[in-house]
Specification:
Layout (H helix, E strand, L loop, with lengths): L1 H9 L12 H9 L10 E6 L2 E6 L13 H19 L3 E8 L2 E8 L7 H5 L17 H10 L6 E5 L2 H19 L2 H9 L1 E2 L2 H7 L3 E2 L10 H11 L2 H13 L3 E8 L3 H20 L3 E4 L2 H4 L4 H7 L6 E10 L12 H4 E2 L2
Parallel strand pairs: 1-11, 6-7
Antiparallel strand pairs: 1-2, 2-4, 3-4, 5-8, 8-10, 9-10
Helix pairs in contact: 2-3, 3-11, 5-11, 6-10
Bound molecules: flavin mononucleotide.
The site of flavin mononucleotide has 18 residues, from helix 3 and strand 9.
């Protein structure tokens, strides 16, 4: 545990306090964003007054994400960290999505006072264990909904127990579909890192520590995990995760394609940063969006009107701090501009 914590903490130095423009530092903050299966599917190009984010297609997840929607949402999460980080360097940031690239244009602006979302970047995490069930306050819900609304996207916060139970049913159905699919399981297990040694050496993927598990040899982990990833077990454990989370948030944006995917990723990242700033825990549960047959049913439950579509779902509540996830060395993710 100590070695995993040391490696994870070393990545999370607070943003430099002198506020001088530093694109490499902004890229570092970008890499700390949420991203699907912790694949870190991005390349950062640092070019004078802008940062370009390009998909790293070698890190696709073709089974769970055949159209690369999660990949682009992950780029959106990284872009939002850069936007928030830029504030601390007295830079305004505009995000454009065009020709297969997310471009963040930076222009000087007046220095801003210290900002809670900027401070939250290095502390944010997906907390993937049960929460304590205590309700959110009205002020917390309002702050989260506001944080999750940007560009074309918005956050629909669901606290009503009946509505939550209906959504939990969709998650359970999603688990049955996904965990019953050998290709889905193989892809997921391929991104799992069972031993601290492998997690640290690779710097990517889903480390057992982050999932609340001890470090075990990789061969043993692969053998045991098959028992846990059964459709019914997963449905039961996700049911508990939802029951102990007082609210869900669905990120909604118009249509599909790189631009709404990036907007949705940005909105989810901003919502997670706000949750972190409020001392709240959050994590994704995307089964009803990933399984194509379930997505329209989730959208109907929420009363969404086309072109609005559901893009991501998170649960929110009060939970423990968990070990942080790891990242690859920054140099591996920076491409010459
Ligand atoms: C687009 C996207 C999809 C994700 N889907 C899931 C999911 O379905 N289930 C889950 O537990 N985590 C999901 N995550 C969270 C990632 O596993 C997590 O961000 C990654 O492991 C890095 O960990 P961190 O966010 O704690 O830094 C998703 C994240 C993103 C951005």
């Amino acid at each position: 545990m100590a070695s995993h914590s040391r490696a994870a903490d070393a990545l999370r130095a607070a943003p430099a306090a002198d506020g001088a423009p530093d694109l490499r530092e902004l890229a570092r903050l970008g890499t700390l964003a949420a991203n699907s299966h912790n694949t870190q599917p991005w390349r950062f190009e640092l070019v004078q007054d802008r940062i370009r984010l390009r998909p790293d297609l070698a890190r696709r997840c073709p089974v769970v994400d055949p159209d690369d929607a999660h990949l682009w949402r992950s780029l959106g999460c990284a872009a939002e960290n850069i936007v928030q980080g830029a504030q601390g360097q007295a830079l305004a940031a505009d995000v454009l999505v065009q020709d297969g690239v997310v471009e963040i244009r930076l222009t000087p602006k007046q220095p801003a006072p210290p900002d809670a979302l900027l401070d939250a970047i290095v502390h944010r995490q997906c907390c993937k264990v049960p929460y304590d069930g205590a309700p959110l306050t009205g002020a917390e819900v309002a702050a989260l909904a506001e944080a999750g609304t940007l560009a074309g996207a918005r956050a629909e916060v669901v606290s009503d127990p009946t509505q939550k139970a209906r959504i939990a049913e969709l998650v359970a159905e999603g688990n049955r579909a996904q965990m019953g699919d050998p290709a889905f399981r193989a892809e997921l297990i391929g991104w799992m890192r069972f031993s601290d040694r492998t997690a640290i050496a690779r710097g990517d993927g889903l480390a057992g520590r982050v999932l609340g598990l001890p470090s075990v040899p990789d061969w043993l982990g692969r053998r045991i995990v098959g028992l846990f990833l059964s459709p019914e077990r997963q449905a039961k454990s996700d049911r508990r995760l939802i029951d102990t989370s007082p609210a869900l948030a669905v990120i909604v944006a118009p249509g599909d394609g790189p631009a709404p995917w990036v907007d949705a990723g940005r909105a989810s990242q901003r919502l997670q940063l706000q949750a972190t700033a409020l001392g709240l825990a959050s994590a994704f549960l995307n089964q009803p969006i990933e399984v194509p047959a379930l997505r329209p049913r989730l959208e109907a439950l929420l009363g969404l009107v086309p072109p609005e579509r559901a893009h991501l779902m998170l649960r929110l509540g009060r939970g423990p701090r968990q070990p942080y996830s790891l990242r690859r060395p920054l140099a591996e993710m920076i491409a010459p501009g």
